[in-house]
Amino acid sequence: MSAPQSLFDKIWQRHAVVTRPDGAVLLLVGRHLLHDGSAAAFRFLDERRLPLHDKRHTFGTPDHYVSTAGNDLASIGEAFRRDLVSGMAENARKHGFTHFGLGDPRQGIIHVIGPEQGITLPGITMVCGDSHTSSHGALGALAFGIGASEVAHVLATQTLWQSRKPQSMRINVEGKLGTGVTAKDAILAIIARIGTAGGTGKVIEYAGPVFRDMSIEGRLSVCNMSIEAGARAGMVAPDENTFAYLKGRPYAPQGAMWERAVAFWRTLPSDAGAAFDAEVTLNGNAIEPMATWGTSPEHASAVTGAVPDPAAAPTAERREAIASALNYMGLSPGMRMDEIPINRVFIGSCTNSRIEDLRAAAAVLQGRKAKVQAWAVPGSGLVKRQAEQEGLDKVFRDAGFEWREPGCSMCAGVNGDLVEPGVHCASTSNRNFVGRQGPGARTHLMSPTMAAAAAVTGHITDVRRLMAGEA
User: Fold this and answer.
1) How far is residue 213's CA from residue 216's CA, in Å, rounded to a whole number?
2) Fewer CB within 10 A of the terminal residue: the chain, N end or C end?
């Protein structure tokens, strides 16, 4: 009788083509995702006169360098950005992969359209030249980001060398999330607990009642930020919610193949007794709405908490890190989280730009007005269309938000959508590093509902107060 296996073990074993004596493994790649930063990889193919190995399982969309002020090339201000976007379209024509380009209603952020189109499936391996590829693990895939040279290797061979099999980690969140507490709060609480190095070299499986009860869109937010805990990938075992989400999507199996696929997917969850290299358990009942105060995702606190005092840190290294973060952010030790001013709000990114996110933010904004400049950026053209059919765009506009076109926008700061120096931005994105949203920008990560609350109050605010009608 074989030993119990984890979800990760099962997928890795099925895709390992060759394992060398030194532990290096050649993995078969199930589906390869591309964005508009893939030009160098295609130059590699062209210089060596290599064809794209598997155009059927290669999918791309421009997202990093597009403008969210418009959805055509003319809206892109810089020539080099226009060239990257138009070059991707040319590579799609030349090599024959599926391309959701500008003007296509399906265009959007690659990590939004993958699940949306049914490209992301349980039990497969997925890679993309972007660290937040971990998002796709929410549907039971093994998905991770790769570098530019690795993108070229996958284009040429549909395989990828890994120096060794990663370790595994299971994070259990017991209990139930309270009113006003979201998936984004759960992952920020996890990262605050284990740190940005807590998952280094590991594939994390998220388990327990909180994740079983969580929507697929919530799971996508959690797995998206696995990389912020240092992990190679994040995963949630596929279940009935997964199957219901995927059924009927364009690139998911259809007809008799659907039934066969679901039968296989039911075998994927980790076996009872499966071993993990590390395990962590959190109490979901104790998680509150969260926000970051510093320059790392681990610099997070409950909204009812306070900015830490560097003097209380246990090591000199930690004291220096906290002091440096507070200096950059312009905050004082002991300052209450709800005293932190907010001058700008961004609701979007591959972490929180799906229809569920927009609905939740709109519910907070209904009948209220933003006190600061605020943007809402849907994750795809289809999300934007659905939001408009539901009237969410009117709610955002009535509240004083700009309703933008799909794209990565203000998350990455490489597309002209920037936060000004010294400005505190409530952001639903995934990174708050120094300069991430622009030189001198001060980013506070939080959920869409918390960002909406900050927009209408002008400071970090416990959204539960607004939900209760207190403000």
Assistant:
1) 9
2) N
Tens of pLDDT, residues 101-120? 999 999 999 999 999 999 99
Cβ atoms 441, 419 nearer than 8 A? yes
The tokens for 354 are 């799906």
Q: State the pTM of this model.
A: 0.97
Give, in order, the Cα–Cα distances in Å from 254 to each of 136, 245, 249, 258, 259: 20, 14, 9, 5, 8
> Which option is the CATH number for 290-467: 3.30.930.10, 2.40.160.10, 3.30.499.10, 3.20.20.140?
3.30.499.10
Q: CB under 8 Å to 393, separation ≥6 — which residues?
A: 376, 384, 387, 403
- Give the model confidence (pLDDT) of 358-402 as tens digits: 999 999 999 999 999 999 999 999 999 999 999 999 999 999 999
| DSSP one-letter string for 326-395 | HHHHT--TT-BGGGSB--EEEE-TTTS-SHHHHHHHHHHHTT---SSEEEE--SBHHHHHHHHHTTHHHH
**Residue range 54-79, pLDDT digits in tens:** 999 999 999 999 999 998 999 998 99
Residue 447: how many other CB atoms lie within 10 Å:
30
* CA–CA dist 119, 446 (Å, integer): 28
Pairing assessment for the beta strands 402-403 and 142-145 based on DSSP bridges: unpaired
Give the Cβ contact number of residue 117 at 10 Å: 20
